[in-house]
């Protein structure tokens, strides 16, 4: 596998951006691969949480090792602290990631598939919100996964104030009293998608039972399921931390339709 840092210019944001990419390549590690295997490669967009950036998945999990024997590309962008949202202060992060980034990827890495059935999105915490939001807002992704996601149909759960102050949240989402039913409300987006299309994305969500977002996930997933989505919802012991996300990202890889090959373990 090759590990790339790609610096590119975002026309939408009007500034330079960085994405990290884990890219399958012909090598002695995978002598069974051919040039044919490395065309139309499935791609997983992997999204970070509030304290992270485009490098954090590689720094804190085993993602590069986990996909070493699987012909799948991992694209890791950054939204800074903007919640995968077109902010009220004029920075269209959501458009930059949903519309512009896939076009950049297609231009720079043409061996990656553009087909919906081979494009997936996943994320943790804020990135879990972003993954579902991107899947509900488009026809680009056939699978979407959330790990400990802030699955907000409403940003007013009690823990919000411990993350940032109200001025920050208003800068992202605007008047929070008008959040419900807005373009940032996951449940509203999910309902709208069911009314407009029948080819819904398959969803996966995991949440630790000791996580402060546990009840939020239980309620949100129940509402999303009621809309007719195919959802795999799993819980287990766990808190809101990397120890668990490192374990659960392998579960996501097993769930995705990518012929995931586990690395052989020496006894």
Automatic annotation (TrEMBL):
Gene Ontology MF term list: acyltransferase activity, transferring groups other than amino-acyl groups
Domain of life: Bacteria
Protein name: Esterase
Organism this protein belongs to: Leuconostoc citreum
């Amino acid at each position: 596998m090759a590990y790339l840092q790609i610096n590119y210019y975002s026309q939408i944001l009007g500034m330079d951006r960085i994405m990290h990419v884990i890219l399958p390549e012909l090598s002695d590690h995978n002598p069974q691969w051919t040039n044919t295997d490395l065309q139309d490669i499935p791609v997983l967009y992997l999204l970070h949480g509030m304290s992270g950036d485009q490098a954090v998945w590689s720094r804190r999990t085993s993602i590069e090792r986990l996909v070493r024997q699987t012909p799948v590309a991992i694209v890791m962008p950054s939204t800074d602290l903007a919640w995968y949202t077109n902010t009220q202060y004029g920075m269209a992060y959501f458009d930059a990631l949903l519309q512009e980034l896939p076009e950049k990827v297609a231009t720079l890495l043409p061996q990656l598939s553009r087909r919906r059935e081979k494009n997936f999105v996943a994320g943790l915490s804020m990135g879990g919100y972003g993954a579902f939001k991107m899947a509900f807002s488009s026809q680009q992704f056939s699978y979407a996964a959330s790990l400990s996601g802030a699955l907000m149909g409403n940003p007013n759960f009690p823990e919000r104030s411990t993350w940032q102050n109200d001025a920050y949240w208003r800068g992202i989402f605007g008047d929070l009293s008008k959040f419900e039913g807005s373009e940032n409300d996951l449940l509203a987006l999910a309902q709208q998608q069911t009314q407009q299309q029948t080819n819904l994305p398959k969803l996966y969500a995991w949440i630790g039972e000791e996580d402060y977002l546990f009840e939020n996930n239980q309620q949100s997933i129940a509402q999303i399921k009621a809309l007719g989505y195919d959802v795999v919802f799993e819980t287990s012991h766990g808190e809101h931390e990397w120890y668990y996300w490192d374990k659960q990202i392998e579960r996501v890889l097993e769930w995705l339709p990518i012929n995931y090959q586990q690395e052989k373990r020496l006894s």
